[in-house]
Specification:
Helix content: 10-25%
Strand order of the largest sheet: 1-2-3-4
Strand content: 25-35%
Radius of gyration: 13 Å
Number of helices: 1
Structural class: alpha+beta
Order of helices and strands: EEEEH
Largest sheet: 4 strands, antiparallel
């Protein structure tokens, strides 16, 4: 069963502009997962990660270990 995101408090990077048209992702802790969505499409799909997988992904991004 998918988590209910209706009352979720989404967060985006402090490096992201407050403009609604900005390109950013938003993340939220929901139940036992970290949910991630496209900030331009708040009603669109979400990716979910186990907390340890999310931390690992962020660490790899911060250390430029991914070609993104």
């Amino acid at each position: 069963m998918a988590p209910d995101f209706s009352s979720t408090r989404w967060r985006k990077s402090s490096h992201s502009s407050m403009d609604e048209n900005s390109t950013c992702v938003e993340a939220a802790a929901v139940s036992a997962v970290i949910a991630v969505r496209d900030g331009k499409d708040p009603n669109g799909p979400c990716l979910t990660f186990a907390p340890e997988d999310w931390r690992s992904l962020l660490a790899r991004i911060k250390h430029s270990a991914l070609d993104i």
